[in-house]
Design brief:
- This protein is an alpha/beta fold.
- The protein folds into 2 domains: 3-68, Chemotaxis Receptor Methyltransferase Cher, domain 1, CATH 1.10.155; 80-278, Vaccinia Virus protein VP39 (Rossmann fold, 3-Layer(aba) Sandwich).
- The protein is 41% helix and 19% strand.
- The chain starts with a helix and ends with a strand.
- The structure holds S-adenosylmethionine.
Length: 281
């Protein structure tokens, strides 16, 4: 992979997803994409770049994007946000939901579903019949593979390490083995989310730098460990759009290394532990 190939790939990823790749990521790009070149029988990165630059190959362009995103996540990651949800945000919202009001939470950049399901478990612990009220958690990601994994809601036993035993017992059940996939084999037991979780969480593919088809505002948005891959200009644009979509008094939760900047800070005030509250409640 030449420097010119790397720059072309970085340029496409930036235009498509807002993800900024510095030259220090050259080895990572090489190792993730060389497998793909072998699978396709393509001999050079130059040829691969020409292929994905051709608009008739949108499917391969998305495959490239998906292989270059970083999807690391786990249940109850940065646990203080779920504590905050339980102690501060949810009590009045669930009270309002009992009176028929609408409650919407959004996990933006949800990866394989661990984050929205952690939000769902926090909520279900307080209101086990939540899905029968007008309460939903929207879970979105640009990468169709992780969205499909989240929607399937099936996780290996080792993946559930961060889930408290009581929650595991209530909101996961052993998943039946699927013939021919090796899943449910002898190495590791799989678990699937129960219907109360499925009914609460809605998975969609969505590019944060593209159009957002959703109408209405959110009571809280989790966008954690996503904007670290963007440049400052893209981050600030996304945060501004979140600010417009959050209800007065609602919250934006960001990752531990992220700090809000730009126009969003006019309405989102830092509270504590990387959570920001929208003014005007
Ligand atoms: C490191 S994961 C974070 C997952 C979860 N929020 C957490 O903190 O555990 C980052 C996710 O952001 C997604 N992502 C990156 N760029 C995106 C974009 N432009 N639009 C939507 N999702 C994006 C990636 O596909 C990936 O799944």
């Amino acid at each position: 992979m030449t420097e010119a190939d790397f720059l072309k790939i970085a340029d496409m990823l930036y235009k498509d997803a807002g993800i900024h790749l510095s030259p220090s990521k050259t080895d990572l790009v090489y190792s993730r994409l060389s497998k793909r070149l072998r699978t396709l029988g393509i001999a050079s990165f130059k040829d691969y770049c020409a292929l994905v630059a051709d608009s008739s190959n949108a499917g391969e362009r998305m495959t490239m994007l998906a292989s270059l995103t970083t999807n690391v996540t786990h249940f109850f990651r940065e646990k203080h946000h779920f504590d905050h949800l339980r102690e501060h945000l949810l009590p009045p919202l669930l009270q309002a939901a009992r009176q028929g009001e609408r409650v919407r939470l959004w996990s933006a950049g949800c990866s394989t579903g661990h984050e929205p399901y952690s939000m769902a478990m926090t909520l279900l612990a307080m209101m086990p019949n939540a899905a029968s009220h007008d309460i939903r958690i929207l879970a979105t990601d640009i990468d169709p593979n992780v969205v499909a994994t989240g929607r399937a809601g099936i996780y290996g036993a080792s993946d559930l390490g961060g889930v408290p035993a009581e929650y595991r017992r209530r909101w996961f059940r052993p998943a039946p083995p699927i013939a021919g996939t090796g899943r449910g084999g002898t190495d590791e037991m799989d678990f699937e989310v129960v219907d109360a979780m499925r009914d609460l969480v809605v998975f969609r593919e969505l590019n944060l730098i593209g159009q957002w088809p959703m109408k209405g505002r959110f009571d809280a948005i989790f966008c954690r460990n996503v904007t670290i891959y963007f440049d400052q200009q893209t981050r600030e644009r996304v945060w501004k759009r979140f600010a417009e979509r959050i209800q007065p008094g609602g919250y934006l939760y960001v990752g531990h290394s992220e700090r809000l900047g730009g126009p969003a800070t006019a309405v989102l005030t830092y509270e504590s532990n990387t959570s920001y509250r929208k003014t005007g409640a």
